[in-house]
From TrEMBL:
Record InterPro entries: SNase_OB-fold_sf (IPR035437), Staphylococal_nuclease_OB-fold (IPR016071), Thermonucl_AS (IPR002071)
Domain of life: Eukaryota
GO molecular function terms noted in the UniProt entry: nuclease activity; nucleic acid binding
Annotated protein name in UniProt: Putative nuclease (SNase-like), OB-fold protein
Listed Pfam families: SNase (PF00565)
Organism name: Helianthus annuus
Length: 110
């Protein structure tokens, strides 16, 4: 999804993020707006489900990070900040590890 990055399954809140995404989209009609393709050939876009902007919902629930390096939309930054300020979801932890840093650390350990 464009503009967000979720914790990996083995990270804190990884399971919760996956479960919430499943709850939001499985078995429902989706509107997907493709903007780009990532370096792995995957489509990158916004997802809407029954009028709900999925990235917004995930950010507001504190289950994902705004991936500001790839998406500068201020509303995504604001939704993450609001969740951080309220200490919702993964923001209940003092210093949650960013998934892109977690993945990088795992690659370097190999």
């Amino acid at each position: 999804m464009k503009g967000i990055d979720a914790p990996e399954s083995s990270m804190p809140y990884g399971k919760e993020a996956k479960e919430e995404l499943i709850r939001l989209v499985v078995g429902k009609s989706l509107k997907v707006l493709i903007f780009d393709e990532d370096r792995y050939g995957r489509c990158v876009g916004d997802i809407y489900c029954n009028g709900v902007f999925v990235q917004e919902r995930m950010l507001k629930k504190g289950l994902v990070w705004h991936y500001g390096a790839y998406d500068k939309r201020p509303e995504l930054e604001k939704w993450e900040k609001d969740a951080r300020d309220k200490r919702i979801g993964l923001w209940a932890s003092a210093n949650p590890e960013k998934p892109w840093e977690w993945r990088k650390n795992r690659r370097e350990q190999r």
